[in-house]
Amino acid sequence: MKEQLEQILATAIADLQQQGVLPADVQPRILLDRPRDKSHGDFATNLALTLAKPAGMNPRALAEALIAALPKVDWLAQADIAGPGFINFTLSQQQLIDQLEHALASATTGIQAAPAPKTIVIDYSSPNLAKEMHVGHLRSAIIGDAVARVQELLGHKVVRQNHVGDWGTQFGMLLAHMEELGDAELDMQLSNLETFYKAAKKRFDDSPEFANRARELVVALQSGEARCRKLWQQFIDVSLSHCQEVYDRLGVALTRADVMAESAYNDDLPQVIEDLKAQGLLVEDQGAQCVFLDEFKNKDGEALPVIVQKSGGGYLYATTDLAAIRYRQNVLHGDHLMYFVDQRQGLHFQQIFTLAKKAGFARADLQMDHYGFGTVMGKDGRPYKSRDGGVTKLADLLDEAEKRALELVQQKNSDLTAAEQEHVAKVVGISSVKYADLSKNRTSDYIFDWDTMLSFEGNTAPYLLYAYTRVVSIFNKAQINPAEVSGEFVLNDERELELANLLVRFNEVVQQVADKAMPHFLCGYLFELAGKFSSFYEACPILQQDDQALRQSRLKLAALTAKTLRQGLQLLGIHTLEKM
Ligand code: ARG
To answer: Which atom belonging to ligand 1 lies closest to the Cα atom of 345?
Structure first.
């Protein structure tokens, strides 16, 4: 509806320009807001206020002229002037009903497909494989996955890229430690990469011979020495299978096929350097190859270097990312490259995006965006740590989530069998962790707190999952298939109208999530929807309603609420439960 409204406003402006009321050269940006207060209509615009000056008119008079010039459409019930010159629009009830019917019938619950589908390459999760995934890896995996689902539903082609760190000097130390262990012991030790890494590091710090061997092995690995490669491959395979277990448990849609590791770009790195050199972009600084970009300066106003090759000849994180941009554009045919990576890498991405364009690695119209996120904090306000003060392995964290959820489910004393309780606990535990992350503004740090995330009150997964089962139970009780409710919408009660008006905003919210890569908009919406449904359900009896027409209409509102909640949670990567 927003677009239609924008359209008729644009027509009105063009009309006023033709009449000479507005200067022909103004190109106004039409902003439409959703007023908080329903008495201000469904949409509001400050258009007359922004155009008053170029038009040389009083804003209220201009608002009046704009309203008079609006083409007549049956879906608009009213346009009123408010305050100094705002225009409030009230849509007709028929268009509200049409939208509800459309959402009920539509496979996507009324979410509009993108008019021009793109290929979107989404870089997410992308852990370093030297260690096991820990709590710091949650956000990229969870947020990136939700955005990927949203883009896919909008009809874009999404290519997932798991840019895992499988290269670099730490691997020398790990390989040296592998060499020292017998096969049987190696298998056992690799089952916990966290302790394996620690043991290797300790050997490295304690023994100079070991450290030397580790350095030799880095050279051997980089020169492609076969035995060394094999050992490395063994380590990488184990580490990737640990990651896969975490993705499967989290319901993150990444597979081995999405892995495009740093090492996959090795062969292209000398070419990256050659091409930068040919462009005259390289400067040697203390033996290292650097590019200085004027766009990025330190606090003394000096240009900051992007180092692309070390004095010893080794390549860097940035070099690999430049190669990856080329690959994503030329081989994957990406139109938009999205990166879900910790906020602290913001400068790195701004630099390589700028450099990729400057060097012609990226077309001028290639869209590249880094979507940063804040840190996961403990209740003490510091980065989240396990009880022993170390980093928390993700696998352990998920175990704990399931365990806590099971206690919760058992306490609820429902009529579920033990097996059903286990299942519910798994879904509730994992969703709580995911939802706690998704529901916070991506760019802020957030506090990881079991009690809040597992609460049945507030904007949490348990609350929403439970709200969904309550809606579904209405249909189960009456043995009605929610997809087959007949009848017309009759919207008279204020609570019915509020619920209906919120239901039809689903599309708008999902588009916003796609635009800004901010899943918390959707969480906030679903939370509000569950609340509005509750108030409606309390005030407006459904199954006990004697008036058949009203009963059917309310059943339809309930059916659309269930459908919207399920679709919304699905987009967030959360499975709904039929009972809990
Ligand atoms: N492996 C990196 C890290 O853990 C993140 C990689 C993000 N993706 C990229 N293309 N740089 O910090």
So the answer is: 12
Alpha helices in 504-547 (DSSP H): 506-516, 520-539
Q: Is-contact 141 161, C-beta < 8 A? A: no
Helix axes 183-190, 193-206, angle to 10 degrees: 120
d(CA 185, CA 193): 13
> What are the residues facing 289 on neighbouring strands?
284, 309
Give CA–CA dist 246/138, Å, rounded: 10
Mutation choice for ligand 1 from 126, 137, 327, CB with most ligand atoms inside 8 A: 126
500-519 pLDDT, tens per residue?
Answer: 999 999 999 999 999 999 99
Residue whose CA is at the smallest distance from ligand 1 atom 9: 163
57 CA distance to ligand 1 middle (Å): 54
Q: How far is the CA of 404 from the centre of ligand 1 (A)?
A: 32
Which residues have CB under 8 Å from 509's CB, separation 6+? 521, 522, 525
Would residue 206 count as lying in a domain? yes
- CA neighbor of 398 nearest in space, from 459, 460, 453, 342: 453
480: helix, coil or strand? coil
Would you say residue 215 lies in a domain? yes
Q: Which helix (H) or strand (E) holds 159?
A: strand 157-161
Please count the helices (runs of H) and the strands (runs of E) in the chain. 21, 12
What is the pLDDT confidence band of residue 2, given thresholds at 50, 70 and 90? confident
Of 234, 258, 282, the domain-final residue: 258
Cα angle for residues 357, 362, 366 (degrees, 5° grid): 100
Percent of the chain with pLDDT over 90: 84
Task: Tell me how far the alpha carbon of residue 234 is from its chain's centroid.
Answer: 32
SS3 337: strand
Q: Tell the residue number behind the tokens 């008279």, with chain if given.
A: 492
Tell me whether residue 383 is in a domain: no
Pick the last residue of a domain from 65, 91, 117. Answer: 91
Q: How many domains does the structure of the chain reveal?
A: 2
Partners of 259 in beta bridges: 162
* Residues 353, 313, 176: CA angle, nearest 5 degrees: 105
Instruction: Find the angle CA(212)-CA(217)-CA(218) to the nearest 5 degrees.
Output: 100
β-sheet bridge partners, residue 87: 45, 81
**85: domain CATH number?**
3.30.1360.70
The predicted pLDDT at position 386 comes to: 74
Q: What is the mean pLDDT of the chain?
A: 94
Pocket of ligand 1 (CB under 6 A): 123, 126-128, 163, 165, 321, 324, 339, 341
Domain membership flag for residue 253: yes
- Cβ atoms of 499 and 557 within 8 Å: the answer is yes
Nearest Cα to Cα of residue 42 among 11, 88, 80, 87: 88
- Atom number, ligand 1, closest to the C-alpha of residue 342: 12
What range does the domain containing 50 cover? 2-91
CA of 163 to the centre of ligand 1 (A): 6
**pLDDT digits over 233-255, tens only?**
999 999 999 999 999 999 999 99
**Banded model confidence at residue 187, pLDDT cuts 50, 70, 90:** confident
Q: pTM (2 decimals)?
A: 0.92
